[in-house]
Write a structure and sequence with these properties.
Strand content: 15-25%
Helix content: 40-55%
Radius of gyration: 29 Å
CATH superfamily of the largest domain: P-loop containing nucleotide triphosphate hydrolases
Number of strands: 13
Structural class: alpha/beta
Number of helices: 16
CATH class of the largest domain: Alpha Beta
Order of helices and strands: EEHEEEEHEHHHHHHHEHEEHEHEEHHHH
Largest sheet: 7 strands, mixed
Distance between the termini: 19 Å
CATH topology of the largest domain: Rossmann fold
Strand order of the largest sheet: 3-4-5-6-2-1-7
Number of domains: 3
Length: about 450
Protein backbone atom coordinates (compact mmCIF):
# COMPACT_ATOMS: atom_id res chain seq x y z
CA UNK A 1 0.00 0.00 0.00
CA UNK A 2 1.27 3.44 -0.94
CA UNK A 3 1.80 6.19 1.64
CA UNK A 4 -0.14 9.45 1.32
CA UNK A 5 -1.05 12.44 3.43
CA UNK A 6 -4.53 12.60 4.95
CA UNK A 7 -7.31 14.09 2.83
CA UNK A 8 -10.82 15.28 3.67
CA UNK A 9 -13.89 16.21 1.64
CA UNK A 10 -17.68 16.30 1.91
CA UNK A 11 -19.29 13.18 0.47
CA UNK A 12 -22.82 14.54 0.21
CA UNK A 13 -23.73 17.27 -2.31
CA UNK A 14 -23.94 20.92 -1.21
CA UNK A 15 -27.21 22.39 0.02
CA UNK A 16 -29.66 21.57 2.77
CA UNK A 17 -30.42 17.96 3.67
CA UNK A 18 -31.20 15.65 6.54
CA UNK A 19 -27.66 14.28 6.74
CA UNK A 20 -24.26 15.50 5.61
CA UNK A 21 -21.19 13.26 5.48
CA UNK A 22 -17.53 14.27 5.67
CA UNK A 23 -14.89 11.65 4.79
CA UNK A 24 -11.19 11.45 5.69
CA UNK A 25 -8.63 9.01 4.35
CA UNK A 26 -4.98 8.59 5.22
CA UNK A 27 -2.55 7.66 8.00
CA UNK A 28 -3.75 10.41 10.38
CA UNK A 29 -7.48 10.11 9.79
CA UNK A 30 -8.15 8.43 13.15
CA UNK A 31 -5.88 10.89 15.00
CA UNK A 32 -7.68 13.87 13.48
CA UNK A 33 -11.04 12.40 14.57
CA UNK A 34 -9.68 11.96 18.10
CA UNK A 35 -8.82 15.66 18.30
CA UNK A 36 -12.43 16.76 17.85
CA UNK A 37 -14.79 13.83 18.57
CA UNK A 38 -16.22 13.32 22.04
CA UNK A 39 -18.18 10.12 22.56
CA UNK A 40 -18.62 7.46 25.22
CA UNK A 41 -15.26 5.89 24.40
CA UNK A 42 -11.95 7.25 23.05
CA UNK A 43 -11.36 6.92 19.31
CA UNK A 44 -8.46 4.51 19.90
CA UNK A 45 -10.98 2.07 21.44
CA UNK A 46 -13.61 2.44 18.73
CA UNK A 47 -14.24 -0.74 16.74
CA UNK A 48 -13.83 -0.67 12.98
CA UNK A 49 -16.96 -0.34 10.83
CA UNK A 50 -19.20 0.62 13.75
CA UNK A 51 -21.06 3.91 14.22
CA UNK A 52 -20.54 5.85 17.47
CA UNK A 53 -22.64 8.73 18.77
CA UNK A 54 -20.97 11.86 20.07
CA UNK A 55 -20.24 15.55 19.55
CA UNK A 56 -17.70 17.31 17.38
CA UNK A 57 -15.83 20.16 19.06
CA UNK A 58 -13.86 22.99 17.45
CA UNK A 59 -10.48 24.22 18.73
CA UNK A 60 -12.27 26.41 21.29
CA UNK A 61 -13.97 23.27 22.64
CA UNK A 62 -17.36 24.49 21.44
CA UNK A 63 -19.87 22.02 20.05
CA UNK A 64 -20.15 22.23 16.29
CA UNK A 65 -22.74 19.44 15.91
CA UNK A 66 -24.13 16.21 17.28
CA UNK A 67 -22.76 13.48 15.03
CA UNK A 68 -22.27 9.80 14.31
CA UNK A 69 -18.67 8.79 13.58
CA UNK A 70 -17.31 5.60 12.03
CA UNK A 71 -13.75 4.37 11.59
CA UNK A 72 -12.96 1.92 8.77
CA UNK A 73 -9.47 0.68 9.44
CA UNK A 74 -7.07 -0.31 6.67
CA UNK A 75 -7.13 -2.34 4.55
CA UNK A 76 -10.88 -3.00 4.90
CA UNK A 77 -11.95 0.38 3.50
CA UNK A 78 -12.74 2.04 0.19
CA UNK A 79 -9.19 3.38 -0.23
CA UNK A 80 -7.38 0.54 1.62
CA UNK A 81 -6.26 3.27 4.07
CA UNK A 82 -7.69 4.28 7.44
CA UNK A 83 -10.97 5.99 6.55
CA UNK A 84 -13.16 8.08 8.87
CA UNK A 85 -16.66 9.31 8.16
CA UNK A 86 -18.54 11.87 10.24
CA UNK A 87 -22.32 11.94 9.75
CA UNK A 88 -23.65 15.33 10.76
CA UNK A 89 -26.71 17.45 9.99
CA UNK A 90 -26.91 18.44 6.34
CA UNK A 91 -26.83 22.23 6.55
CA UNK A 92 -24.21 24.20 4.64
CA UNK A 93 -22.88 25.93 7.76
CA UNK A 94 -22.62 22.68 9.74
CA UNK A 95 -20.68 20.94 6.96
CA UNK A 96 -18.38 23.94 6.63
CA UNK A 97 -17.71 23.85 10.38
CA UNK A 98 -16.93 20.12 10.34
CA UNK A 99 -14.58 20.54 7.37
CA UNK A 100 -12.79 23.44 9.06
CA UNK A 101 -12.10 21.29 12.14
CA UNK A 102 -10.22 18.69 10.12
CA UNK A 103 -8.47 21.19 7.85
CA UNK A 104 -7.18 23.04 10.92
CA UNK A 105 -6.02 19.70 12.38
CA UNK A 106 -3.80 19.17 9.32
CA UNK A 107 -5.88 17.35 6.73
CA UNK A 108 -5.77 18.47 3.10
CA UNK A 109 -8.85 19.08 0.96
CA UNK A 110 -9.14 16.16 -1.46
CA UNK A 111 -8.88 16.74 -5.19
CA UNK A 112 -11.75 15.53 -7.43
CA UNK A 113 -11.72 11.73 -7.55
CA UNK A 114 -8.80 11.41 -5.14
CA UNK A 115 -10.49 8.84 -2.89
CA UNK A 116 -11.14 6.57 -5.89
CA UNK A 117 -7.66 7.28 -7.25
CA UNK A 118 -6.18 6.03 -3.97
CA UNK A 119 -8.39 2.93 -4.18
CA UNK A 120 -6.91 2.31 -7.65
CA UNK A 121 -3.31 3.00 -6.66
CA UNK A 122 -3.64 0.80 -3.58
CA UNK A 123 -4.96 -2.09 -5.67
CA UNK A 124 -8.54 -2.23 -4.45
CA UNK A 125 -9.92 -1.36 -7.90
CA UNK A 126 -8.44 -1.60 -11.36
CA UNK A 127 -8.88 1.37 -13.68
CA UNK A 128 -11.96 0.02 -15.46
CA UNK A 129 -13.67 -0.49 -12.10
CA UNK A 130 -12.62 2.96 -10.92
CA UNK A 131 -14.13 4.55 -14.03
CA UNK A 132 -17.36 2.65 -13.36
CA UNK A 133 -17.78 4.51 -10.05
CA UNK A 134 -18.58 7.79 -11.78
CA UNK A 135 -20.78 6.00 -14.33
CA UNK A 136 -22.90 4.54 -11.50
CA UNK A 137 -23.37 8.06 -10.14
CA UNK A 138 -24.24 9.52 -13.56
CA UNK A 139 -26.48 6.68 -14.77
CA UNK A 140 -29.73 8.06 -16.21
CA UNK A 141 -31.65 4.79 -16.52
CA UNK A 142 -31.96 1.40 -14.86
CA UNK A 143 -30.17 -0.31 -17.73
CA UNK A 144 -27.30 2.20 -17.69
CA UNK A 145 -26.97 1.74 -13.94
CA UNK A 146 -26.86 -2.04 -14.32
CA UNK A 147 -24.11 -1.85 -16.95
CA UNK A 148 -22.07 0.48 -14.70
CA UNK A 149 -22.56 -1.75 -11.64
CA UNK A 150 -21.47 -4.80 -13.64
CA UNK A 151 -18.30 -2.94 -14.67
CA UNK A 152 -17.70 -1.92 -11.06
CA UNK A 153 -18.13 -5.56 -10.08
CA UNK A 154 -15.35 -6.48 -12.52
CA UNK A 155 -17.28 -7.98 -15.46
CA UNK A 156 -15.37 -5.97 -18.06
CA UNK A 157 -12.06 -6.44 -16.25
CA UNK A 158 -12.51 -10.20 -16.22
CA UNK A 159 -13.11 -10.18 -19.97
CA UNK A 160 -9.98 -8.08 -20.54
CA UNK A 161 -7.93 -10.32 -18.26
CA UNK A 162 -9.20 -13.39 -20.11
CA UNK A 163 -8.03 -11.91 -23.42
CA UNK A 164 -4.69 -11.01 -21.85
CA UNK A 165 -4.22 -14.53 -20.48
CA UNK A 166 -4.78 -16.05 -23.94
CA UNK A 167 -2.23 -13.70 -25.48
CA UNK A 168 0.27 -14.21 -22.65
CA UNK A 169 0.17 -17.98 -23.14
CA UNK A 170 1.04 -17.53 -26.80
CA UNK A 171 3.78 -15.04 -25.90
CA UNK A 172 5.33 -17.38 -23.33
CA UNK A 173 5.41 -20.18 -25.89
CA UNK A 174 7.01 -17.91 -28.48
CA UNK A 175 9.64 -16.57 -26.09
CA UNK A 176 10.57 -20.08 -24.96
CA UNK A 177 11.47 -20.88 -28.58
CA UNK A 178 13.34 -17.60 -28.92
CA UNK A 179 15.42 -18.20 -25.79
CA UNK A 180 15.99 -21.95 -26.14
CA UNK A 181 16.87 -24.15 -29.14
CA UNK A 182 14.26 -26.49 -30.59
CA UNK A 183 16.04 -29.57 -29.27
CA UNK A 184 15.34 -28.39 -25.70
CA UNK A 185 11.68 -27.27 -26.00
CA UNK A 186 10.59 -29.12 -29.13
CA UNK A 187 9.26 -27.69 -32.38
CA UNK A 188 6.84 -24.76 -32.31
CA UNK A 189 3.18 -25.75 -32.74
CA UNK A 190 2.01 -22.75 -34.76
CA UNK A 191 -1.58 -23.98 -35.43
CA UNK A 192 -2.09 -24.58 -31.72
CA UNK A 193 -0.67 -21.11 -30.96
CA UNK A 194 -2.79 -19.30 -33.56
CA UNK A 195 -6.23 -20.68 -32.63
CA UNK A 196 -6.60 -18.95 -29.22
CA UNK A 197 -5.14 -15.70 -30.60
CA UNK A 198 -7.64 -15.67 -33.47
CA UNK A 199 -10.49 -16.40 -31.06
CA UNK A 200 -9.39 -13.58 -28.74
CA UNK A 201 -9.17 -11.17 -31.67
CA UNK A 202 -12.72 -11.95 -32.81
CA UNK A 203 -14.14 -11.61 -29.31
CA UNK A 204 -12.30 -8.33 -28.69
CA UNK A 205 -13.67 -6.94 -31.94
CA UNK A 206 -17.20 -7.95 -30.90
CA UNK A 207 -16.74 -6.25 -27.53
CA UNK A 208 -15.42 -3.09 -29.20
CA UNK A 209 -18.49 -3.05 -31.49
CA UNK A 210 -20.76 -2.88 -28.41
CA UNK A 211 -19.60 0.72 -27.91
CA UNK A 212 -22.53 2.21 -29.86
CA UNK A 213 -24.96 0.57 -27.45
CA UNK A 214 -22.82 1.50 -24.46
CA UNK A 215 -22.58 5.12 -25.58
CA UNK A 216 -26.36 5.25 -26.04
CA UNK A 217 -26.79 3.93 -22.51
CA UNK A 218 -24.34 6.41 -21.03
CA UNK A 219 -25.07 9.56 -23.03
CA UNK A 220 -28.61 8.89 -24.21
CA UNK A 221 -30.05 8.40 -27.69
CA UNK A 222 -30.64 11.61 -29.64
CA UNK A 223 -34.09 11.30 -31.26
CA UNK A 224 -35.38 14.07 -33.54
CA UNK A 225 -39.11 14.46 -34.27
CA UNK A 226 -39.34 15.78 -37.82
CA UNK A 227 -42.11 16.48 -40.33
CA UNK A 228 -44.13 19.15 -42.05
CA UNK A 229 -46.07 21.73 -39.99
CA UNK A 230 -49.20 20.69 -38.10
CA UNK A 231 -48.65 16.96 -38.61
CA UNK A 232 -48.67 16.14 -34.88
CA UNK A 233 -44.99 16.37 -33.94
CA UNK A 234 -45.56 18.32 -30.73
CA UNK A 235 -48.52 16.10 -29.82
CA UNK A 236 -46.25 13.08 -30.22
CA UNK A 237 -43.61 14.64 -27.98
CA UNK A 238 -46.21 15.38 -25.30
CA UNK A 239 -47.56 11.83 -25.56
CA UNK A 240 -44.10 10.30 -25.13
CA UNK A 241 -43.32 12.60 -22.20
CA UNK A 242 -46.69 12.01 -20.58
CA UNK A 243 -47.21 15.74 -20.07
CA UNK A 244 -48.08 18.84 -22.06
CA UNK A 245 -44.58 20.17 -22.63
CA UNK A 246 -44.85 21.44 -26.22
CA UNK A 247 -47.54 23.91 -27.28
CA UNK A 248 -50.16 22.29 -29.53
CA UNK A 249 -52.65 24.29 -31.64
CA UNK A 250 -54.66 23.76 -34.83
CA UNK A 251 -52.50 26.33 -36.60
CA UNK A 252 -49.38 25.39 -38.56
CA UNK A 253 -46.01 26.83 -37.53
CA UNK A 254 -46.73 26.75 -33.78
CA UNK A 255 -43.28 25.26 -33.09
CA UNK A 256 -40.65 27.63 -34.48
CA UNK A 257 -37.56 26.42 -32.61
CA UNK A 258 -36.20 23.12 -31.37
CA UNK A 259 -37.43 21.92 -27.97
CA UNK A 260 -35.42 19.29 -26.07
CA UNK A 261 -36.53 17.02 -23.24
CA UNK A 262 -35.12 13.95 -21.45
CA UNK A 263 -36.99 10.69 -20.90
CA UNK A 264 -36.41 6.95 -20.59
CA UNK A 265 -37.81 4.56 -23.21
CA UNK A 266 -37.66 0.80 -22.61
CA UNK A 267 -34.85 1.36 -20.12
CA UNK A 268 -32.75 3.60 -22.38
CA UNK A 269 -32.17 7.34 -21.78
CA UNK A 270 -33.39 9.48 -24.68
CA UNK A 271 -32.83 13.12 -25.64
CA UNK A 272 -36.05 13.93 -27.46
CA UNK A 273 -35.98 16.94 -29.82
CA UNK A 274 -39.10 18.52 -31.32
CA UNK A 275 -38.14 20.51 -34.42
CA UNK A 276 -39.96 23.22 -36.32
CA UNK A 277 -42.13 22.04 -39.19
CA UNK A 278 -40.24 21.65 -42.47
CA UNK A 279 -41.80 23.81 -45.16
CA UNK A 280 -41.03 26.18 -48.03
CA UNK A 281 -41.58 29.58 -46.42
CA UNK A 282 -40.60 33.24 -46.78
CA UNK A 283 -41.04 33.95 -43.07
CA UNK A 284 -37.49 34.60 -41.70
CA UNK A 285 -38.36 33.14 -38.28
CA UNK A 286 -39.75 29.93 -39.82
CA UNK A 287 -36.75 29.76 -42.17
CA UNK A 288 -34.40 29.80 -39.17
CA UNK A 289 -36.46 27.07 -37.52
CA UNK A 290 -36.21 24.92 -40.65
CA UNK A 291 -32.46 25.53 -40.84
CA UNK A 292 -32.04 24.32 -37.26
CA UNK A 293 -34.17 21.28 -38.00
CA UNK A 294 -31.82 20.43 -40.89
CA UNK A 295 -28.80 20.70 -38.59
CA UNK A 296 -30.41 18.47 -35.97
CA UNK A 297 -31.28 15.87 -38.61
CA UNK A 298 -27.60 15.56 -39.54
CA UNK A 299 -26.45 14.68 -36.01
CA UNK A 300 -29.45 12.81 -34.59
CA UNK A 301 -29.04 9.11 -33.76
CA UNK A 302 -32.57 8.51 -34.99
CA UNK A 303 -35.20 10.61 -36.80
CA UNK A 304 -38.92 10.09 -36.15
CA UNK A 305 -40.38 11.25 -39.46
CA UNK A 306 -44.02 12.02 -38.67
CA UNK A 307 -46.66 11.86 -41.43
CA UNK A 308 -50.42 12.27 -41.20
CA UNK A 309 -52.02 8.89 -41.93
CA UNK A 310 -55.44 10.46 -42.48
CA UNK A 311 -54.45 12.33 -45.65
CA UNK A 312 -52.25 12.04 -48.72
CA UNK A 313 -48.56 12.90 -48.61
CA UNK A 314 -47.78 16.49 -49.59
CA UNK A 315 -44.82 18.26 -51.17
CA UNK A 316 -43.80 19.39 -47.68
CA UNK A 317 -43.77 15.76 -46.50
CA UNK A 318 -41.32 14.90 -49.26
CA UNK A 319 -39.29 18.04 -48.45
CA UNK A 320 -38.90 16.74 -44.89
CA UNK A 321 -38.08 13.23 -46.11
CA UNK A 322 -35.16 14.66 -48.10
CA UNK A 323 -33.49 15.46 -44.77
CA UNK A 324 -33.71 11.85 -43.60
CA UNK A 325 -31.39 8.88 -44.06
CA UNK A 326 -33.46 5.67 -44.44
CA UNK A 327 -31.22 3.63 -42.13
CA UNK A 328 -31.58 6.23 -39.36
CA UNK A 329 -35.25 7.03 -39.87
CA UNK A 330 -38.41 5.59 -38.36
CA UNK A 331 -41.56 6.77 -40.14
CA UNK A 332 -44.31 7.46 -37.61
CA UNK A 333 -47.75 7.33 -39.23
CA UNK A 334 -49.81 9.54 -36.92
CA UNK A 335 -53.60 9.71 -36.45
CA UNK A 336 -54.11 5.95 -36.59
CA UNK A 337 -57.48 6.51 -34.87
CA UNK A 338 -58.84 8.01 -38.12
CA UNK A 339 -59.51 6.55 -41.56
CA UNK A 340 -56.18 5.97 -43.31
CA UNK A 341 -55.62 7.72 -46.66
CA UNK A 342 -51.79 7.93 -46.70
CA UNK A 343 -50.19 6.21 -49.70
CA UNK A 344 -47.52 4.23 -47.85
CA UNK A 345 -46.18 2.79 -51.10
CA UNK A 346 -44.71 6.25 -51.71
CA UNK A 347 -42.51 5.62 -48.65
CA UNK A 348 -40.92 2.48 -50.10
CA UNK A 349 -37.46 3.87 -49.48
CA UNK A 350 -38.23 4.04 -45.76
CA UNK A 351 -39.08 0.51 -44.63
CA UNK A 352 -39.16 1.15 -40.88
CA UNK A 353 -42.62 2.38 -39.89
CA UNK A 354 -44.96 2.38 -36.91
CA UNK A 355 -48.54 3.65 -36.55
CA UNK A 356 -49.64 5.76 -33.57
CA UNK A 357 -52.32 8.13 -32.41
CA UNK A 358 -50.53 10.89 -30.51
CA UNK A 359 -53.85 12.45 -29.52
CA UNK A 360 -55.16 9.29 -27.85
CA UNK A 361 -51.74 7.83 -26.88
CA UNK A 362 -52.23 4.69 -28.98
CA UNK A 363 -49.27 2.64 -30.22
CA UNK A 364 -46.69 4.33 -27.97
CA UNK A 365 -45.36 1.04 -26.55
CA UNK A 366 -44.73 -0.21 -30.06
CA UNK A 367 -43.03 3.07 -30.93
CA UNK A 368 -40.74 2.81 -27.89
CA UNK A 369 -39.80 -0.75 -28.81
CA UNK A 370 -39.16 0.27 -32.42
CA UNK A 371 -36.87 3.11 -31.32
CA UNK A 372 -34.75 0.76 -29.20
CA UNK A 373 -34.70 -1.85 -32.00
CA UNK A 374 -33.61 0.73 -34.59
CA UNK A 375 -30.74 1.77 -32.31
CA UNK A 376 -29.59 -1.89 -32.16
CA UNK A 377 -30.11 -1.83 -28.39
CA UNK A 378 -32.62 -4.67 -28.25
CA UNK A 379 -29.90 -7.25 -27.56
CA UNK A 380 -29.01 -5.49 -24.28
CA UNK A 381 -31.82 -5.75 -21.75
CA UNK A 382 -32.03 -4.99 -18.05
CA UNK A 383 -30.75 -8.02 -16.15
CA UNK A 384 -28.86 -9.55 -19.08
CA UNK A 385 -25.31 -10.81 -18.67
CA UNK A 386 -23.88 -8.99 -21.69
CA UNK A 387 -20.61 -7.10 -21.24
CA UNK A 388 -20.81 -3.70 -22.92
CA UNK A 389 -18.13 -1.08 -23.54
CA UNK A 390 -19.40 2.43 -22.76
CA UNK A 391 -16.12 4.39 -22.70
CA UNK A 392 -14.55 5.52 -25.97
CA UNK A 393 -11.12 5.00 -24.39
CA UNK A 394 -11.92 1.32 -23.85
CA UNK A 395 -13.20 0.90 -27.41
CA UNK A 396 -10.05 2.52 -28.85
CA UNK A 397 -7.77 0.32 -26.73
CA UNK A 398 -9.60 -2.83 -27.84
CA UNK A 399 -9.28 -1.82 -31.49
CA UNK A 400 -5.56 -1.17 -30.99
CA UNK A 401 -5.19 -4.67 -29.53
CA UNK A 402 -7.16 -6.18 -32.44
CA UNK A 403 -4.93 -4.33 -34.93
CA UNK A 404 -1.82 -5.69 -33.19
CA UNK A 405 -3.17 -9.25 -33.37
CA UNK A 406 -4.00 -8.80 -37.04
CA UNK A 407 -0.39 -7.73 -37.52
CA UNK A 408 0.69 -10.83 -35.62
CA UNK A 409 -1.39 -13.13 -37.86
CA UNK A 410 -0.09 -11.39 -41.00
CA UNK A 411 3.49 -11.80 -39.77
CA UNK A 412 2.87 -15.52 -39.26
CA UNK A 413 1.66 -15.82 -42.86
CA UNK A 414 4.80 -14.02 -44.01
CA UNK A 415 7.02 -16.34 -41.92
CA UNK A 416 8.45 -13.35 -40.03
CA UNK A 417 11.06 -13.94 -37.31
CA UNK A 418 9.71 -15.05 -33.93
CA UNK A 419 10.99 -11.83 -32.37
CA UNK A 420 8.63 -9.84 -34.64
CA UNK A 421 5.71 -12.07 -33.68
CA UNK A 422 6.45 -11.54 -29.99
CA UNK A 423 6.56 -7.77 -30.53
CA UNK A 424 3.02 -7.80 -31.97
CA UNK A 425 1.73 -9.77 -28.99
CA UNK A 426 3.37 -7.39 -26.52
CA UNK A 427 1.73 -4.46 -28.33
CA UNK A 428 -1.69 -6.13 -27.94
CA UNK A 429 -1.06 -6.70 -24.23
CA UNK A 430 -0.01 -3.08 -23.77
CA UNK A 431 -3.24 -1.88 -25.39
CA UNK A 432 -5.37 -4.11 -23.15
CA UNK A 433 -3.40 -2.93 -20.12
CA UNK A 434 -4.55 0.63 -20.79
CA UNK A 435 -8.12 -0.46 -19.97
CA UNK A 436 -7.34 -1.98 -16.58
CA UNK A 437 -4.57 0.50 -15.74
CA UNK A 438 -1.35 -1.53 -15.95
CA UNK A 439 0.02 0.49 -18.86
CA UNK A 440 -2.06 3.70 -18.69
CA UNK A 441 0.11 6.87 -18.82
CA UNK A 442 0.00 9.17 -15.78
CA UNK A 443 -1.50 12.08 -17.71
CA UNK A 444 -4.43 9.89 -18.78
CA UNK A 445 -4.93 8.76 -15.18
CA UNK A 446 -5.03 12.38 -14.01
CA UNK A 447 -7.53 13.22 -16.73
CA UNK A 448 -9.80 10.32 -15.79
CA UNK A 449 -9.93 11.06 -12.06
CA UNK A 450 -10.34 14.81 -12.57
CA UNK A 451 -13.81 14.08 -13.99
CA UNK A 452 -14.97 12.77 -10.61
CA UNK A 453 -16.76 14.83 -8.00
CA UNK A 454 -14.94 15.93 -4.84
CA UNK A 455 -15.54 13.34 -2.12
CA UNK A 456 -15.52 10.29 -4.40
Amino acid sequence: MLSFDTIVAPVTPPGEGGVGIVRLSGPQAVDFLGVAFRGKRPTREMESHRLYHGYLLNRDKERVDEVLAVIMRAPQSYTCEDVVEVHCHGGTQVLRGVLDIFLEAGARMAAPGEFTQRAFLNGRLDLAQAEAVIEVIRARSECAGRIALDQLDGHLSREINRFSDQIKKALVLLESHIDFPDDEVGSLDLPGLLAPVQEASLQMNTLANSFDVGRALREGISVLILGRPNVGKSSLMNALLGESRAIVTAFSGTTRDTLEEQLVLAGFPVRLVDAAGVCDTNDPVEQEGVRRAREKALVADLVLMVVDGSCSLTDEDFLALELCKPDKTLVVVNKSDQAQNCQLEQLAGFPYRVAVSAKYCLGLDGLSEAIVERMNCDNISVGSESVVVSERRHRDALLQAVAALKGFLASVDEAAPLECLALDLREALSALGQITGETTPDDILDQIFSQFCVGK
